[in-house]
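ok, trying the design again with the full structure, not the truncated one.
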Protein backbone atom coordinates (compact mmCIF):
# COMPACT_ATOMS: atom_id res chain seq x y z
CA UNK A 1 0.00 0.00 0.00
CA UNK A 2 1.30 3.48 -0.88
CA UNK A 3 0.29 6.49 1.24
CA UNK A 4 0.66 9.96 -0.23
CA UNK A 5 1.34 12.87 2.17
CA UNK A 6 1.71 16.49 1.14
CA UNK A 7 5.00 18.21 1.94
CA UNK A 8 3.22 20.80 4.09
CA UNK A 9 1.37 18.17 6.12
CA UNK A 10 4.58 16.18 6.54
CA UNK A 11 6.49 19.27 7.67
CA UNK A 12 3.80 20.18 10.21
CA UNK A 13 3.62 16.62 11.52
CA UNK A 14 7.39 16.25 11.72
CA UNK A 15 7.73 19.60 13.46
CA UNK A 16 5.06 18.73 16.00
CA UNK A 17 6.68 15.38 16.69
CA UNK A 18 10.06 17.06 17.16
CA UNK A 19 8.60 19.58 19.64
CA UNK A 20 6.78 16.87 21.56
CA UNK A 21 9.93 14.78 21.79
CA UNK A 22 12.12 17.70 22.86
CA UNK A 23 9.54 18.65 25.49
CA UNK A 24 9.69 15.16 26.92
CA UNK A 25 6.10 14.33 25.94
CA UNK A 26 7.19 11.40 23.76
CA UNK A 27 10.07 8.96 24.23
CA UNK A 28 13.10 9.62 22.00
CA UNK A 29 13.24 7.11 19.15
CA UNK A 30 16.30 5.25 17.96
CA UNK A 31 18.31 7.09 15.34
CA UNK A 32 17.17 6.03 11.89
CA UNK A 33 19.52 4.34 9.45
CA UNK A 34 18.57 4.31 5.78
CA UNK A 35 19.70 1.29 3.79
CA UNK A 36 18.98 1.14 0.08
CA UNK A 37 19.06 -2.18 -1.78
CA UNK A 38 19.72 -1.81 -5.52
CA UNK A 39 17.75 -4.55 -7.28
CA UNK A 40 16.90 -4.80 -10.99
CA UNK A 41 14.02 -4.14 -13.35
CA UNK A 42 10.52 -4.36 -11.87
CA UNK A 43 9.62 -7.34 -14.07
CA UNK A 44 12.58 -9.46 -12.94
CA UNK A 45 13.29 -11.46 -9.77
CA UNK A 46 15.65 -9.06 -7.95
CA UNK A 47 12.99 -6.41 -7.42
CA UNK A 48 10.28 -8.47 -5.64
CA UNK A 49 12.90 -10.37 -3.61
CA UNK A 50 14.53 -7.07 -2.66
CA UNK A 51 11.17 -5.77 -1.50
CA UNK A 52 10.65 -8.82 0.70
CA UNK A 53 14.09 -8.47 2.26
CA UNK A 54 13.65 -4.71 2.82
CA UNK A 55 10.32 -5.31 4.56
CA UNK A 56 11.79 -8.09 6.70
CA UNK A 57 14.83 -6.21 7.98
CA UNK A 58 13.24 -2.78 8.43
CA UNK A 59 12.26 -1.70 11.93
CA UNK A 60 8.61 -2.42 11.05
CA UNK A 61 9.43 -5.98 9.92
CA UNK A 62 8.71 -9.17 11.87
CA UNK A 63 12.21 -9.19 13.38
CA UNK A 64 13.54 -5.94 11.95
CA UNK A 65 16.54 -3.88 13.01
CA UNK A 66 15.61 -1.06 15.38
CA UNK A 67 15.68 2.30 13.60
CA UNK A 68 16.39 0.77 10.17
CA UNK A 69 14.52 1.95 7.08
CA UNK A 70 15.42 -0.38 4.19
CA UNK A 71 14.12 0.19 0.67
CA UNK A 72 14.33 -1.82 -2.55
CA UNK A 73 15.30 0.39 -5.50
CA UNK A 74 14.81 -0.66 -9.13
CA UNK A 75 17.94 -0.40 -11.28
CA UNK A 76 19.70 -1.72 -14.38
CA UNK A 77 21.05 -4.67 -12.40
CA UNK A 78 24.39 -6.05 -11.27
CA UNK A 79 26.93 -3.67 -12.79
CA UNK A 80 24.79 -0.61 -12.07
CA UNK A 81 24.30 -1.71 -8.46
CA UNK A 82 28.03 -2.12 -7.88
CA UNK A 83 28.64 1.33 -9.40
CA UNK A 84 26.02 2.83 -7.09
CA UNK A 85 27.65 1.21 -4.04
CA UNK A 86 31.06 2.44 -5.18
CA UNK A 87 29.82 6.03 -5.62
CA UNK A 88 27.83 6.08 -2.38
CA UNK A 89 24.50 6.36 -4.22
CA UNK A 90 23.40 3.09 -2.60
CA UNK A 91 24.33 1.25 0.57
CA UNK A 92 23.93 -2.21 -0.94
CA UNK A 93 22.68 -4.09 -3.97
CA UNK A 94 22.10 -7.42 -5.67
CA UNK A 95 24.57 -8.75 -8.20
CA UNK A 96 25.49 -11.90 -9.99
CA UNK A 97 28.40 -13.75 -8.42
CA UNK A 98 30.46 -13.50 -11.61
CA UNK A 99 30.10 -9.72 -11.81
CA UNK A 100 30.98 -9.33 -8.11
CA UNK A 101 34.13 -11.42 -8.56
CA UNK A 102 35.23 -9.48 -11.65
CA UNK A 103 34.62 -6.13 -9.95
CA UNK A 104 36.53 -6.98 -6.78
CA UNK A 105 39.44 -8.61 -8.61
CA UNK A 106 39.61 -6.23 -11.58
CA UNK A 107 39.27 -9.09 -14.09
CA UNK A 108 36.80 -10.11 -16.79
CA UNK A 109 34.30 -7.32 -17.37
CA UNK A 110 36.45 -5.02 -15.18
CA UNK A 111 39.74 -5.76 -16.95
CA UNK A 112 41.71 -2.51 -17.23
CA UNK A 113 39.38 -0.69 -14.81
CA UNK A 114 40.07 0.16 -11.17
CA UNK A 115 39.26 -2.71 -8.83
CA UNK A 116 36.26 -2.26 -6.55
CA UNK A 117 38.45 -3.41 -3.69
CA UNK A 118 36.07 -2.52 -0.87
CA UNK A 119 33.18 -4.60 -2.28
CA UNK A 120 32.00 -7.08 0.35
CA UNK A 121 29.48 -9.92 0.50
CA UNK A 122 26.47 -9.82 2.80
CA UNK A 123 24.96 -13.12 1.62
CA UNK A 124 24.56 -15.47 -1.30
CA UNK A 125 20.81 -15.63 -1.92
CA UNK A 126 19.82 -18.19 -4.59
CA UNK A 127 20.79 -19.58 -8.01
CA UNK A 128 20.11 -17.32 -11.00
CA UNK A 129 19.15 -19.24 -14.09
CA UNK A 130 20.13 -18.13 -17.57
CA UNK A 131 16.88 -18.10 -19.55
CA UNK A 132 17.06 -17.91 -23.33
CA UNK A 133 13.44 -17.24 -24.25
CA UNK A 134 12.35 -17.65 -27.88
CA UNK A 135 9.16 -17.53 -29.90
CA UNK A 136 8.02 -21.09 -30.54
CA UNK A 137 7.75 -20.36 -34.29
CA UNK A 138 11.21 -18.75 -34.57
CA UNK A 139 12.99 -22.04 -35.33
CA UNK A 140 15.52 -21.63 -32.53
CA UNK A 141 16.44 -25.03 -31.09
CA UNK A 142 19.95 -24.20 -29.88
CA UNK A 143 22.11 -21.14 -29.17
CA UNK A 144 23.77 -21.62 -32.57
CA UNK A 145 20.38 -20.98 -34.21
CA UNK A 146 20.45 -17.38 -32.99
CA UNK A 147 22.64 -16.44 -35.95
CA UNK A 148 20.87 -13.77 -37.97
CA UNK A 149 18.00 -13.56 -35.48
CA UNK A 150 16.69 -10.52 -33.60
CA UNK A 151 17.95 -11.06 -30.05
CA UNK A 152 17.80 -8.84 -26.97
CA UNK A 153 20.85 -9.14 -24.70
CA UNK A 154 19.44 -6.86 -21.94
CA UNK A 155 20.57 -3.33 -21.10
CA UNK A 156 24.17 -2.17 -20.70
CA UNK A 157 24.99 -2.24 -17.00
CA UNK A 158 23.12 -5.48 -16.40
CA UNK A 159 24.73 -8.78 -15.47
CA UNK A 160 22.60 -10.48 -18.11
CA UNK A 161 24.36 -8.80 -21.02
CA UNK A 162 27.73 -10.03 -19.73
CA UNK A 163 26.56 -13.63 -19.55
CA UNK A 164 24.72 -13.40 -22.88
CA UNK A 165 28.00 -12.47 -24.56
CA UNK A 166 29.79 -15.38 -22.87
CA UNK A 167 27.09 -17.82 -23.98
CA UNK A 168 27.16 -16.54 -27.56
CA UNK A 169 30.98 -16.84 -27.63
CA UNK A 170 30.80 -20.43 -26.34
CA UNK A 171 28.76 -21.31 -29.42
CA UNK A 172 31.05 -19.41 -31.80
CA UNK A 173 28.88 -16.28 -32.09
CA UNK A 174 29.31 -12.58 -31.33
CA UNK A 175 26.88 -9.68 -31.25
CA UNK A 176 27.71 -9.07 -34.92
CA UNK A 177 26.25 -12.50 -35.78
CA UNK A 178 22.83 -11.55 -34.41
CA UNK A 179 20.62 -8.50 -34.76
CA UNK A 180 21.12 -7.26 -31.21
CA UNK A 181 18.75 -5.20 -29.13
CA UNK A 182 19.36 -3.98 -25.59
CA UNK A 183 16.10 -4.13 -23.69
CA UNK A 184 14.95 -5.05 -20.19
CA UNK A 185 12.94 -8.30 -19.87
CA UNK A 186 9.55 -6.53 -19.83
CA UNK A 187 9.96 -4.68 -23.15
CA UNK A 188 11.72 -7.76 -24.61
CA UNK A 189 8.67 -9.87 -23.84
CA UNK A 190 6.38 -7.28 -25.43
CA UNK A 191 8.45 -7.20 -28.62
CA UNK A 192 8.58 -11.00 -28.70
CA UNK A 193 4.79 -11.06 -28.36
CA UNK A 194 4.42 -8.57 -31.22
CA UNK A 195 6.72 -10.61 -33.47
CA UNK A 196 9.37 -7.85 -33.49
CA UNK A 197 11.91 -10.01 -31.59
CA UNK A 198 12.91 -13.64 -31.97
CA UNK A 199 14.58 -14.29 -28.61
CA UNK A 200 15.96 -12.66 -25.50
CA UNK A 201 18.28 -13.46 -22.62
CA UNK A 202 17.24 -13.10 -19.01
CA UNK A 203 19.22 -14.08 -15.92
CA UNK A 204 17.11 -14.56 -12.82
CA UNK A 205 15.54 -17.05 -10.49
CA UNK A 206 12.69 -19.07 -11.90
CA UNK A 207 9.77 -18.67 -12.08
CA UNK A 208 10.11 -15.04 -13.09
CA UNK A 209 6.87 -13.10 -13.37
CA UNK A 210 7.53 -11.55 -16.78
CA UNK A 211 8.07 -14.95 -18.44
CA UNK A 212 5.13 -16.55 -16.59
CA UNK A 213 2.90 -13.80 -17.97
CA UNK A 214 4.36 -14.07 -21.47
CA UNK A 215 3.95 -17.86 -21.57
CA UNK A 216 0.33 -17.64 -20.38
CA UNK A 217 -0.77 -15.98 -23.62
CA UNK A 218 1.98 -16.84 -26.13
CA UNK A 219 3.73 -19.93 -27.44
CA UNK A 220 7.31 -19.69 -26.26
CA UNK A 221 10.22 -22.05 -25.75
CA UNK A 222 13.29 -22.02 -23.54
CA UNK A 223 16.41 -22.72 -25.57
CA UNK A 224 18.76 -25.18 -23.83
CA UNK A 225 22.29 -24.10 -22.96
CA UNK A 226 23.89 -27.53 -22.86
CA UNK A 227 26.18 -29.89 -24.74
CA UNK A 228 29.95 -29.68 -25.31
CA UNK A 229 29.87 -25.88 -25.80
CA UNK A 230 28.24 -25.38 -22.39
CA UNK A 231 30.59 -27.94 -20.79
CA UNK A 232 33.59 -25.96 -22.06
CA UNK A 233 32.08 -22.72 -20.76
CA UNK A 234 31.52 -24.32 -17.33
CA UNK A 235 35.15 -25.47 -17.26
CA UNK A 236 36.47 -22.01 -18.19
CA UNK A 237 34.19 -19.90 -15.99
CA UNK A 238 33.97 -21.46 -12.54
CA UNK A 239 31.16 -19.16 -11.38
CA UNK A 240 28.72 -20.97 -13.72
CA UNK A 241 26.88 -24.11 -12.58
CA UNK A 242 24.62 -26.55 -14.39
CA UNK A 243 20.93 -25.90 -13.86
CA UNK A 244 17.55 -27.23 -15.00
CA UNK A 245 14.25 -25.40 -15.38
CA UNK A 246 11.65 -28.00 -14.42
CA UNK A 247 8.84 -29.07 -16.75
CA UNK A 248 5.80 -26.82 -16.32
CA UNK A 249 7.63 -23.91 -14.68
CA UNK A 250 6.27 -21.90 -17.60
CA UNK A 251 3.11 -22.86 -19.48
CA UNK A 252 3.71 -25.48 -22.20
CA UNK A 253 7.49 -25.34 -21.70
CA UNK A 254 9.20 -28.65 -20.98
CA UNK A 255 12.23 -29.36 -18.81
CA UNK A 256 15.18 -27.32 -20.08
CA UNK A 257 18.88 -27.82 -19.33
CA UNK A 258 20.77 -24.58 -18.84
CA UNK A 259 23.37 -22.92 -16.61
CA UNK A 260 23.23 -20.51 -13.68
CA UNK A 261 25.19 -18.08 -11.53
CA UNK A 262 24.50 -17.11 -7.91
CA UNK A 263 22.50 -14.07 -6.85
CA UNK A 264 24.40 -12.20 -4.16
CA UNK A 265 23.70 -9.27 -1.86
CA UNK A 266 26.75 -7.04 -1.59
CA UNK A 267 27.81 -3.84 0.17
CA UNK A 268 31.06 -2.03 0.92
CA UNK A 269 33.47 -1.76 3.82
CA UNK A 270 32.07 1.75 4.41
CA UNK A 271 28.98 0.25 6.07
CA UNK A 272 29.28 -0.12 9.87
CA UNK A 273 30.04 -3.62 11.15
CA UNK A 274 27.28 -3.57 13.77
CA UNK A 275 24.67 -2.45 11.23
CA UNK A 276 25.48 -5.25 8.79
CA UNK A 277 25.67 -7.76 11.65
CA UNK A 278 22.15 -6.81 12.79
CA UNK A 279 20.81 -6.85 9.23
CA UNK A 280 22.11 -10.39 8.67
CA UNK A 281 20.82 -11.51 12.07
CA UNK A 282 17.39 -10.13 11.16
CA UNK A 283 17.42 -11.74 7.69
CA UNK A 284 17.97 -15.23 9.10
CA UNK A 285 15.60 -14.91 12.05
CA UNK A 286 12.74 -17.39 12.15
CA UNK A 287 10.18 -14.64 11.52
CA UNK A 288 12.00 -13.22 8.48
CA UNK A 289 12.58 -16.68 7.05
CA UNK A 290 8.85 -17.43 7.21
CA UNK A 291 8.05 -14.14 5.44
CA UNK A 292 10.60 -14.86 2.68
CA UNK A 293 9.34 -18.41 2.14
CA UNK A 294 5.75 -17.22 1.86
CA UNK A 295 6.55 -14.24 -0.35
CA UNK A 296 8.38 -15.69 -3.38
CA UNK A 297 9.49 -19.03 -4.80
CA UNK A 298 13.14 -17.98 -4.45
CA UNK A 299 12.53 -16.92 -0.86
CA UNK A 300 12.64 -20.59 0.10
CA UNK A 301 16.30 -20.68 -1.01
CA UNK A 302 17.41 -17.65 1.01
CA UNK A 303 18.70 -19.80 3.84
CA UNK A 304 21.62 -19.70 6.24
CA UNK A 305 23.08 -22.77 4.50
CA UNK A 306 23.08 -21.04 1.09
CA UNK A 307 24.30 -17.71 2.50
CA UNK A 308 27.95 -18.76 2.71
CA UNK A 309 28.18 -20.60 -0.64
CA UNK A 310 29.74 -19.29 -3.90
CA UNK A 311 31.60 -16.60 -1.97
CA UNK A 312 33.98 -15.29 -4.64
CA UNK A 313 34.62 -12.06 -2.69
CA UNK A 314 35.30 -11.45 1.04
CA UNK A 315 32.40 -11.23 3.47
CA UNK A 316 31.66 -7.94 5.15
CA UNK A 317 33.11 -8.15 8.71
CA UNK A 318 29.64 -7.69 10.24
CA UNK A 319 28.21 -10.55 8.17
CA UNK A 320 31.25 -12.73 8.83
CA UNK A 321 30.89 -12.20 12.58
CA UNK A 322 27.28 -13.42 12.51
CA UNK A 323 28.03 -16.45 10.32
CA UNK A 324 30.89 -17.49 12.62
CA UNK A 325 28.70 -16.97 15.69
CA UNK A 326 26.06 -19.39 14.38
CA UNK A 327 28.61 -21.89 13.01
CA UNK A 328 27.87 -21.29 9.32
CA UNK A 329 31.52 -20.25 8.82
CA UNK A 330 34.56 -21.68 10.56
Amino acid sequence: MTISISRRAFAIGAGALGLATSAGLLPARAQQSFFRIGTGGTSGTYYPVGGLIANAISATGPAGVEGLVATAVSSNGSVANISAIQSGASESGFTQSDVAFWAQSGTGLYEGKPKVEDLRLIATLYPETIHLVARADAGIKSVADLKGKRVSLDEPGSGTIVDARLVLAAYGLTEKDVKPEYLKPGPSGERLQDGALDAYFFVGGYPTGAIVELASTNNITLVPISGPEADKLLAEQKFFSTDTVPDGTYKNVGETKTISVAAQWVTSTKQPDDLVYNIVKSLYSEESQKALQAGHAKGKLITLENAVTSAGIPFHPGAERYYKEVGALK
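Keeping the full-length input from now on. Strands lie at 33-38, 68-73, 92-96, 119-135, 150-152, 179-181, 199-204, 220-222, 241-245, 256-268.
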